[in-house]
Amino acid sequence: MMVGKLKFCLLCLLTYHTVESLNALLSNRLRSTVPRGDALDKEIVKTAVPSMANLAVVPLVGAVDTFWVGRMSNAAAQAGQAAAGTSFFTAYFLVSFIPTITAPLVAKAAGAGDIKEAEKRVAEALWISTVLGFICTIALIVKPGLINSLVLRSDAEALPYANAYLQVRSMSMIAALISAIGFAAYRGILDTVTPLRVSLVANFANLVLDPLFIFQPIALGVVGAALATVTAEIGSAIIYIILLRRKKLLRPFQQLVSSPPSLSSIFVLLTSGATMLLRQALLNISFILATRKAQSINPFAGAAYGIIMQCYSLGVVIQIAIQGTAAAIVPTIRAKNGNLEARRVADRLFGFGSSVAILLSLAQLILLPRFAPFFSVVPQVQKAIIRPARLASLVQLTNGIIFAGEGIMLGISAFRALATITALGVTTMAAFLASPWAANQLDGVLLSILAFHIVQASGVLLHHLFFSPLASSTTIEKSPKSSSSSNY
């Protein structure tokens, strides 16, 4: 009897100490996320802010596209542009998994001082992306209706506009991939100012060309918006090629063509990217499901959804900058100073992401309903925006944890775990869209996206705290260097 009581007391004591240790661990980790204005914060800001500005330029120009197409007073044309934009990015993200993994690979090589290895990684990425981009371009030009049918019904009024837009926009696919690789390469060496300058030049060209191509003097309508984007993307790609050569991150064109990467190196890169391709495919499924549901309600809901997501994407690209910063800084610091210092940086990135998410959520909640008339002159579209816009601000709130966590997982090459978390989120979203809550109302579509994001945020946070090589239980033993060697 005494032995049984003793075992019970020991079990209670062990449980108490376990709970207390876990509470202390989480409290310490939570405190480490708070920005302090120290050298680490300055390094994060120096890397992230130019990326934020760079990435924010694209949806801002996209919003200008939406503005000019909205001046056509044609809800079907506006819905068609929104649907075709989703179709293009669905195809783009399917083949852009290589640029996604290029930044951490370049960062790892640059962190170790091996510029030749970084150059090799860039060359491999360019070769594979160009081939995939060419195949994708041909498919979109020949069969635009095939991918548009994923987001639009065959009898949708917006379908002819969507097909015409997508055929022209597809001609920017290879250029967009080259620009993405250039951006990733510069981010890998922690230079985010140069990509910002490239983006400003290219998107200013898009800004100027939009009204000229859509209205007078060329007057191509929706197709004009696509053509303006194609012109800007090609210009951006050319600039990146010149800059990468100057930075010695790209071989001369003759060597690049005459000395393609070996099949073994391509196989290794594709194998590493296969999991990311799966994840990207899952994300594309979620985009398609949400867009198709919104477009199936009516043209006004379809146009309203396009406007809401256009504005929402302004916040997303700012968070993507934090994701990219995490994907570059974490492997660089890990290579130089070990796991312990990398964990400290990763924790702080969660704090930055969450702080930015709160500000973005409040801004979207306050501003989007007031800006509805700016994006469409159709009263039904303006009315359809109001309530879903409020839900979109809640979705924005979850992005702080999601994108910081995803960037950290990319930086430590936790591709499989990231794909698994994404699969759980997409499954949750699909189930929600199929439920009565999402039946014939735009609110339900936004609620399904919110459910997806809650699963994503929970997954990346749990991975970081308990399963990552940077988790507290593994970091101290495995860290090759102490935090005293940190540059921060």
Short description:
The chain is mainly α. The chain has helices spanning 2-32, 39-70, 75-95, 97-111, 115-142, 144-148, 159-169, 173-188, 193-214, 222-246, 253-258, 263-297, 299-337, 339-375, 379-411, 415-433, 442-467, 472-478. Helices cover 84% and strands 0% of the residues.
Write up what this structure looks like.
This protein has 488 residues and is mainly alpha-helical. It has one domain. Helix 14 packs antiparallel against helix 15. The N and C termini lie far apart (57 Å).
Task: Name the features.
84% helix; Polysaccharide biosynthesis protein C-terminal domain-containing protein; MATE_fam; 488 residues; transmembrane
Number of strands: 0
Report the structural category. Answer: mainly alpha
Assembly state (oligomeric): single chain
| Helix/strand order | HHHHHHHHHHHHHHHHHH
What gyration radius follows from the Cα positions, in whole Å?
A: 24 Å
Q: Write down the overall geometry.
A: globular
Terminal residue distance:
57 Å
Percent in strands: under 5%
- What is the number of independent domains? 1
Main sheet overview = none
**Counting H and I runs of at least 4 residues, what is the number of helices?**
18
Low-confidence stretches: 16-22, 475-488
Mean pLDDT: 79
Helical content band = over 70%
Topology record:
Elements: H1 2-32, H2 39-70, H3 75-95, H4 97-111, H5 115-142, H6 144-148, H7 159-169, H8 173-188, H9 193-214, H10 222-246, H11 253-258, H12 263-297, H13 299-337, H14 339-375, H15 379-411, H16 415-433, H17 442-467, H18 472-478
Helix pairs in contact: 2-9, 2-13, 2-14, 3-5, 3-7, 3-12, 3-13, 4-5, 4-8, 4-12, 4-13, 5-8, 7-10, 8-10, 9-10, 12-13, 12-16, 12-17, 13-14, 13-15, 14-15, 15-17, 16-17
